[in-house]
Amino acid sequence: MKTKSILTALLLMVAGLQTIWAQRVVLHKTNGQTIECDIFELDSITFDDGVCLTCPDNNHPHAIDLGLPSGTKWCCCNVGADKPECVGGYYAWGETDKKSEYDDVSYIFLNGQDTDGDGRIDQDGSYIDIGLDDIAGTDYDVAHVRMGELWCMPSKEQQDELRDNCSIRGIQQNGVNGILVTGPNGGRIFMPPTGYYWKDHFYDDGGYGGYWSSSRIHTELINVFSLVFNTINGYSNWDWDASRCSYGRPVRPVRVKR
Known about the structure:
Elements lengths: L1 E3 L2 H8 L9 E5 L5 E5 L6 E3 L3 E2 L10 E3 L7 E3 L34 E4 L9 E5 L14 H6 L3 E2 L3 H10 L1 E7 L2 E7 L5 E4 L4 E3 L2 E3 L4 E9 L6 E10 L2 E10 L9 E2 L3
Parallel strand pairs: 5-6
Antiparallel strand pairs: 1-4, 2-3, 6-7, 8-9, 10-19, 11-12, 12-13, 14-15, 16-17, 17-18
């Protein structure tokens, strides 16, 4: 958040036009509303970049500053969620639409046949290489596509930074069990357990969370880095995992750096 004095700027804007005290400031909002006041009523204007330490209200999403070394700001909600406790949408990696089934057969970047019906390509299989080891900010990035240009999927490096610099503890927030992630500056985000989808079956032990990164394992085209955690019997731990691209998982985005 930045605060800048506007008195000098306003004086320059109206210089040579009319007497300064006769001026009124009129702010035109995108919804058609206007806000007016006399110029002498102004002391300063606050330019809010939307970054905060915790959610200031229920108008999600918010960019949360966790005090990370890179300056990365994490979203308070998952893609497709209207509040932090909601899981939001489940997506296969690189896809931007939800589906009724998540497996190799339905995955748009795999060709081949599933001869035994387990959902895995086991004959004439081939991977459609999109030529990217990281899809952040591209048309394959569900956060970028669904939430707009201010958001993107986090890279493995950003997920690792989150784990290396933040503490976690299992809590219940608004009736939902999950983890509270606290940064070195006191900033906090809540992450709900997610389970995951394979075929049309939802796998969930009540405490497992798995979140896609934007980073593919370049030596294994079918696997992608993801952030995983578990909260069982009050014990919380998190790590990275190599996850099959065709699973259905949610995404917790980060703010695009300007």
